[in-house]
Amino acid sequence: MSNLQNPAALNSINPLGFWDGAVSTLSRELSPQQFKTWIQPLTLVSFDESEHLLTIGAPNRFKLDWIKKTFADRFQELASQYFGLPINVSFVLDLDMGAPSVATPAALEILVAEPQQNSVVEAATSLDEGAFEIEDHSKLNPNLTFETFVTGKANQLARAASIQVAHNPGSSYNPMFLYGGVGLGKTHLIHAIGNHLLKEKPNARIRYIHAEQYVSDVVRAYQQKAFDRFKRYYHSLDLLLIDDIQFFSGKSRTQEEFFYAFEALLSNKAQVIITSDTYPKEMAGIDDRLISRFDSGLTVAIEPPELEMRVAILMKKAISEGIPMSEDVAFFVAKHLRSNVRELEGALRKILAFVRFHGREVTIEVARAALKDLLSIQNRQISVENIQKSVADFYSIKVADMYSKKRPANIARPRQIAMFMAKELTQKSLPEIGELFGGRDHTTVLHAVRKIAEERAHDGQLNHEIHVIEQTLKA
Ligand SMILES: Nc1ncnc2c1ncn2[C@@H]1O[C@H](COP(=O)(O)OP(=O)(O)OP(=O)(O)O)[C@@H](O)[C@H]1O
């Protein structure tokens, strides 16, 4: 439809249309985990029609490097296809979101000035050991601090533990294992710890690394027979922050290397902080001895944000973008988007892009229009039947048990959870839900909804399970 043959026609194209199309194409091409990790956090920063240049923003340096390396060609292809002309795609660090006043230009300068060092081993082979000095290569994003982290019930424990570790690295909780669903602030918190320590001790040797990057470093070290350097570097850190360790699943050589690094660091009283999408014992494809190490310090969950916190996050981030959002608009968005902070940020970006492109004020109508696709996807996907199926899968029971009269606890409880989720996530009334659960009375549904809501408020494990099920519903 937009196969344009001349540059003038480019003007008639809305780059947001390209962006939505590209994102949805990639969501089909990649696994849900890859999509969430790499593509969802990206933003369309600008489109320069005269230069045929599309600029895409990544939220941190690691993601920026990885996207450039892995997805640049694909974006170029999609853009050229969409616009019908060769389009150049460039990638920048998008430091605007979430942390306005902190050194955006400086950070961009560092980015431009810094040679491309996609991995430690690459750096080790091309530069002398001095190149691993902490300030340049900690890979910390200076914007992710405790100050820019909005606190609420869902993350207060995780935040308190992180502050404690930031003040006493290596001595209080070691390792610290932070787990929770995607986009809930794990990466943010561990950067905050690193940034705090860096401020207190500018010479501390700190390194943030995404697990996927660590895996490719191991591969490279293996290929280049550079394990000595690799070990010397990792074993001598003061603080190692390793993100999304579930990516180690099934990678036994990486796990072995990490095991040695872990042991060396702990015996040096260096702090290790790990994040994952699930708690240690639930991790698949990870060696038992690593799992028991992960669980030997402090394991703390980060929960999905509650409504008020989602509102606070939206309002804070909107102000930092220079386009304040009223409380009623923030409530409207927060009520519809419940799963995680990254999703909220994505929604906010869409609203702000819409407002800028169309020169409108931020109103509920504008938010509804800007989020049209997002909202319809949510509404389409979440039906009581989907909930029953996802809950049954999660607890390994039969879908038929959702409507059966059986009452053993291993069936009754998932059924109550499914009823609770049906009330939370759909527009159905209590009698309608009762009907869909094998003709149960509405008071039975009400009882289940109240019971699970109450338990969820103080049972972190249950809250986590519900969140995981919600994620599968939206995947
Ligand atoms: N409480 C919060 N206050 C402010 N910003 C937040 C908060 N929680 C998350 N964010 C922001 O939401 C985005 C997603 O958070 P983050 O990358 O830390 O998620 P994550 O839990 O590491 O997810 P993943 O498992 O996908 O890596 C980031 O831009 C982060 O700054």
From TrEMBL:
GO MF terms, alphabetically ordered: ATP binding; DNA replication origin binding; lipid binding
Annotated Gene Ontology cellular components are:
cytoplasm; plasma membrane
Its job: Plays an essential role in the initiation and regulation of chromosomal replication. ATP-DnaA binds to the origin of replication (oriC) to initiate formation of the DNA replication initiation complex once per cell cycle. Binds the DnaA box (a 9 base pair repeat at the origin) and separates the double-stranded (ds)DNA. Forms a right-handed helical filament on oriC DNA; dsDNA binds to the exterior of the filament while single-stranded (ss)DNA is stabiized in the filament's interior.
PROSITE patterns referenced in this protein's UniProt entry, alphabetically: DNAA
Q: Where is the AAA+ ATPase domain?
A: 172-306
Keywords (alphabetical) are: ATP-binding, Cytoplasm, DNA replication, DNA-binding, Lipid-binding, Nucleotide-binding
Q: Which family does it belong to?
A: Belongs to the DnaA family.
Question: Which stretches make up the Chromosomal replication initiator DnaA C-terminal domain?
Answer: 383-452
Q: What is its main location?
A: cytoplasm
What's the gene? Answer: dnaA
The domain section of the record reads:
Domain I is involved in oligomerization and binding regulators, domain II is flexibile and of varying length in different bacteria, domain III forms the AAA+ region, while domain IV binds dsDNA.
**Protein name per Swiss-Prot or TrEMBL:** Chromosomal replication initiator protein DnaA
Q: Which InterPro entries match?
A: AAA+_ATPase, Chromosome_initiator_DnaA, Chromosome_initiator_DnaA-like, Chromosome_initiator_DnaA_CS, DnaA_C, DnaA_dom, DnaA_N_dom, DnaA_N_sf
Q: Which domain of life is it from?
A: Bacteria
Q: Which positions in this protein are listed as binding ATP?
A: G183, G185, K186, T187
Q: Which Pfam families has this protein been placed in?
A: Bac_DnaA, Bac_DnaA_C, DnaA_N
Annotated region Domain III, AAA+ region: the residues are 139-355
- Which cell locations does it reside in? Cytoplasm
Stretches for region Domain I, interacts with DnaA modulators: 1-124
